[in-house]
């Protein structure tokens, strides 16, 4: 059961990332983040009410608030990177988010990694260098690479905060609801600021284009919520290590979707770098 739900998590996360990246090519990334997270907030709110998760409220929810502040920044960076560069490179590099909770474990909890985790870190960093592009030819833009690594740092912070925000499954639902609500508030404030500065918050075609993209936006938000749910089930019914490893394979789904739907073609060195980054992430999670 753990393997089934963990693999379902990878599929859902991967498809959500692909959908968000595609939508960000036609709609500003900030609008994609806010609108998709509104859908996620509504669904999670219903789950919280249905499960009575309000009884889990307590000081730990401040970690969820912190995750809600970091999340929109990470998602905006990530969707912008997906819109600018090849998904087959961006998505695996973003999976380096695991380095953040890894560092927290070292600094805050005195954990000591084993040889497998040290090897994973070296492999992942090598992948970052290679995936940035070949020496000859047009590499991935530095801005795209910076956005991707910024997204990885933000996602890693979210993982670390959410891990501290609850101790039960119902508490996790409440923490995720609070996180998404803050996501919407922070993203909405940023969207308002963009408009105030004269920037374009909506794509060409305005609300008509948004309405046309509504099914995709809802799908991205709901896939993200569902992925959180399947991961919680996987972790509750078996080894967390197994759940983490199998759930970390979502970049493969994004890359395959980009290859199959968008016909993306990667240079050999970029594909190798993306693969090394993903392999390093798996090693870090499984060590």
Percent in strands: under 5%
| SS elements, strand count | 0
Helix content: over 70%
DSSP summary: helix tally:
12
Order of helices and strands: HHHHHHHHHHHH
Mean pLDDT, rounded to whole units?
79
Instruction: List unreliable stretches of 5+ residues.
Output: none
Shape, per Cα inertia axes:
globular
What about the largest sheet? none
Compute the gyration radius: what is it? 18 Å
Q: Distance between termini?
A: 22 Å
Structural class: mainly alpha
Put the structure in a nutshell.
The protein is mainly α and 287 residues long.
What would you note in describing this structure?
There is one protein chain. The chain has 287 residues and is mainly α. Helix content is 79%, strand content 0%. It has 12 helices and no strands. The protein has helices at residues 2-23, 29-51, 61-84, 87-94, 99-109, 115-131, 142-165, 169-196, 206-236, 240-247, 250-262, 268-286. The longest helix has 31 residues, at 206-236. The radius of gyration is 18 Å and the shape is globular.
